[in-house]
Structures are given as structure tokens and as C-alpha cells.
Design the sequence.
């Protein structure tokens, strides 16, 4: 029997990587504040803004967890793909609306959301049927065989 990495662990690793990128970019001053004369030494770390961006991306990752793990999405992969496309599209639009005079952590959120957006529409339509066939059904048959 082949071992596989659970889907939730992959999503957690993606979220931790994106959160580390957003938190790292939060320490840098934006070019708008530089043009207004603020120095890097005067810049305080924007903890609430960084936590907002990390929480917003956590909502997107939870959306993918429901998409990949719910029984409805396994039975109806393309309908659920369309339903679960609402959150990534709307969060990408929201991140672009906040881009004017944005801090560097908001720029990092835009980069992460664009990367997620493109993966959602270019890669996920092909991965959902493969996930259904090779991962989800094997996991369910292993669970049902353990019950007896």
C-alpha cells in the first residue's frame, strides 16, 4: 500500500508558507511612506494588518479544505468547483481594492491571492477528478475495511 500525504497537511503547509511570506513582508516600509519621509527605523510592525491578511488567507484555505474533503464535492466535482470559486475570486478582488498606497504585507497578500487564483482556475479543474479517483476513494475504502 502506497503512503500519501493527507490533503489537510498539504493545505496547512501552503497556509503556513503564505503566512510566513506575508509576515516577512510586513517588516518593510512601503514606497508611499518612504515618499512621505518616513524612515525604516520609525516604522512600527503592523501586527493587526498582518493578522488580518493571514486570517483572510486562512478563510481561502478553509474553502479549499471543504472543496477537497466534503462528500458533496466528491459526488459533484464541477458544481462544487463553481460554488467554491466564489471566495477566491472575491478575496482576490478585495485584495486589489486595497492596493492603493498599500503596505508591503498587502502587496504580499495580492501576490499570494494571484498565485492561488491562477492555481484555482488552471490546475484545480484537472486535480479534482484525480483527487476523487485516487485519493478520496482509497481513503474511504481503507476506512470501511478497518471497521470490520
Sequence:
Amino acid at each position: 500500500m502506497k503512503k500519501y500525504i493527507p490533503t489537510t497537511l498539504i493545505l496547512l503547509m501552503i497556509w503556513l508558507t503564505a503566512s510566513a511570506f506575508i509576515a516577512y513582508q510586513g517588516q518593510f516600509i512601503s514606497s508611499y511612506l518612504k515618499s512621505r519621509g518616513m524612515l525604516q527605523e520609525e516604522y512600527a510592525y503592523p501586527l493587526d494588518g498582518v493578522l488580518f491578511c493571514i486570517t483572510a488567507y486562512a478563510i481561502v484555505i478553509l474553502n479549499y479544505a471543504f472543496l477537497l474533503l466534503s462528500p458533496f464535492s466528491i459526488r459533484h466535482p464541477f458544481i462544487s468547483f463553481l460554488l467554491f470559486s466564489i471566495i477566491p475570486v472575491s478575496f482576490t478582488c478585495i485584495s486589489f481594492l486595497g492596493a492603493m498606497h498599500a503596505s508591503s504585507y498587502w502587496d504580499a497578500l495580492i501576490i499570494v491571492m494571484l498565485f492561488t487564483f491562477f492555481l484555482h482556475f488552471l490546475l484545480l479543474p484537472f486535480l479534482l477528478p484525480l483527487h476523487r479517483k485516487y485519493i478520496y476513494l482509497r481513503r474511504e475504502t481503507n476506512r470501511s475495511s478497518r471497521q470490520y
Q: What stands out?
A: DSSP finds eight helices and no strands in the chain.
